[in-house]
Amino acid sequence: MNMITATHMAETAPGAPGLRASAAGELPPIRLVIFDFDGTLSDSGDWFLSVVDELAAKFRFRTVADHEVEMLRNKSSREVINYLGIARWKLPLIARYVRRLVGQNADQIELFPGTPDLLERLRASGVKIALVTSNSEANARAILGEENAARIDFFACGSSLFGKAPKFRRTLKKLGIAADEVLSVGDETRDIDAAREVGMRVGSVLWGYASEDVLAGLGPDALFRTPQDILDYVEANR
Question: Is this prediction's pTM over 0.90?
Answer without folding.
Answer: no
